Amino acid sequence: MIKTLLTTIMLTGLFFQSSAQSGYDEIYDFNEGMALVSTNGKWGFIDESAKLVIPLKYDDAYSFIDGLALVVKNNKYGYINKEGVEIVPLKYDWAYRRFMREEVAWVSIGDNYGLVNKEGKEITPIKYQLYGDFLENVEDLLFSEGLVAVHVGDWESGKSGYLDTTGKEALAFIYTRAHQFSNGLASVERDGKSGYIDRTGKEITSLKYDEAWTFSEGIAKVKLNGKYGVVDTSGKEIVPIQYNTIRNFSEGLAVVGKDGKYGYIDTTGQLVFPIKYDDADPFYNGKAKVEEDGKTFYIYKQ
Questions:
Q1: What phi and psi, each to the nearest 5 degrees, are found at residue 298?
Q2: pLDDT given at position 302
Q3: pLDDT in tens, 160-210
Q4: What is the mean pLDDT of residues 61-69?
């Protein structure tokens, strides 16, 4: 172990001496035996001996992950291997910075998106729209339970459905909106109403709700006619749709509100603390701050 560490330090020292003499403007950390370097705004890669193995010809580049690196030239994106061979040709207007664990990556031409595999083959047409602000929230790009929600056509008249990890349209594109799977179920919308389907496309609840949230820990919040309730993964309404407010569960309890007063329910829908408080915060470390008759104090889980 000590010998390995000393060897690494010696090699690192030699590398930095060599790289300083080479005149690179920027040098990134090694990843998979390769490091990004740049000079005059152009990027390439060196190996651990400081040899330039991929020329400084790209306008932008990302580190190697699982043997491939995203590179950009003339505003076109693609992927290269460690020999500098373009595995995915540089023809896309955008590409995700790495291949996902399913060994596929999102690419786009114009406003349309599709998937490529590590052999450079487009496994879907480049025709889909993606949900969410995926540049800020990577989760919007990722497969969940083997499926990912996508949209075809414009957002007003098009339809949503699901792709599987092979790029196949796994569930029918019959929904106005579709959301990621969680706990084996996904919220979908059609004709202004929402409900839940399973991974086969079977409706676990009818599409009757005004809003239906994502499942977490086997339960999900729903809204109908301005009131809120909770359903379980069988589609049963375990909390009747009667509350003006249901906040997120925390430590097994959720704040519920009715007629301007607040209390707490558990995940079975049982009222644990009465609806009598003027305000109520979520539980944290076994206690929650509440207000009643102008006084603020803590209550504790029983």
A1: -105, 145
A2: 72
A3: 999 999 999 999 999 999 999 999 999 999 999 999 999 999 999 999 999
A4: 97
As a whole number of angstroms, the distance between CA 302 and CA 297 comes to: 16
List Cβ neighbours of 155 (8 Å cut-off, separation of 6 or more).
Answer: 129
What is the 3-class SS of the chain, one letter each residue?
Answer: CHHHHHHHHHHHHHHHHHHHHHCCCEECCCECCEEEEEECCEEEEEECCCCEEEEEEECEECCCECCEEEEEECCEEEEECCCCCEEEEEEECEECCCCCCCCEEEEEECCEEEEEECCCCECCCCCEEECCCCCCCHHHCCCECCEEEEEECCCCCCEEEEEECCCCEEEEEEECEECCCECCEEEEEECCEEEEEECCCCECCCCCECEECCCECCEEEEEECCEEEEEECCCCEEEEEEECEECCCECCEEEEEECCEEEEEECCCCEEEEEEECEECCCECCEEEEEECCEEEEEECC
Confidence of residue 136 (pLDDT cuts 50, 70, 90): low
Q: How far is CA 109 from the centre of its chain?
A: 21
- What residue has token string 């809120």? 228
Mean of the pLDDT values across residues 18-42?
86
Backbone phi, psi, residue 179, to 5° = -130, 165
Place of tokens 């490529």: 116
Mean pLDDT for 237-247 is 94
pLDDT of 116: 98
Half-sphere exposure of 161 (CA within 13 A, CB side): 18
